[in-house]
Amino acid sequence: MRDELIKRICADNASMFTGPGTNTYLIGIEDITLVDPGPLQESRLDNVVAQCGDKLKRVLVTHTHKDHSPGAAYLQQRYSLPVYGQKVKEDDGLQDKTFNPVKELVHGDLVETDEYVIEVIHTPGHASNHLCFLIKEANCILTGDHIMNGSTVVIAPPDGDMSAYLESLHLLKNYEFDTIGPGHGDFMDQPLQVIDWIVNHRLEREKKVLSKMELHGPGSIKDLLPLVYDDVDQRLFPLAQRSLEAHLLKLEKDHQAKRSEDIWHIT
Ligand SMILES: [Zn+2]
Known about the structure:
Elements: H1 2-5, E1 6-10, E2 23-27, E3 32-35, H2 42-52, E4 56-60, H3 70-79, E5 83-85, E6 103-104, E7 110-112, E8 117-122, E9 131-135, E10 140-144, H4 162-172, E11 179-182, E12 188-189, H5 191-216, H6 221-228, H7 237-253, E13 257-260, E14 263-266
Helix pairs in contact: 4-5, 6-7
Bound molecules: zinc ion.
Zinc ion is lined by residues 63, 65, 68, 126-127, 145.
């Protein structure tokens, strides 16, 4: 059923940060919903629209990072398609400020057609305005950057929040689906194992943050970075630094770490 109802098209924006590129999904046969138009690449978007003809009815966006939503404003203006999602919540330099939905989607909203129903699940963590889309008829959830295939997701405070991210991963376990359609990379089966792996991976990293502080004493984020991410390619350190900050803020919230000025220590 998934293959009939959901098609994946990869945008032409492969990079170290986007993997093979951002996925655009087309849901439906006679009544098509497009999820995540990706970057503003007019001819690619024109091709997608031509492929759907007048069956394309609406555009949904998982979140407003620049590799996911900028095509939405173009589709809205050029083809008068209604776009839905959540507006930019925190302008942190990563956001697509052209995104202007006709309606803001909230947790529990249903996008109903004769062919399928899309349930909106609010999943803050990677971005505060992040949404996942569950298509029950296909037993599939589109996860945007909440869950990617092939790499872990960057959690960049202040819009990104590690505590919220873990809660949003647990939240997905309340829903039934047997496939994940990620924002980057191919479909993923065995979703429960995938979710558990991500949660464990994050908690392992959190443990490592604590153990490195225990071993080496208090330090700044710059001091801790090469210790905590000694297994990671140094080219990824700018991103890892954001995730380290997110881990430390979670530990602070959990009363396991504290900072004075920019020096972090365990409590
Ligand atoms: Zn993102």
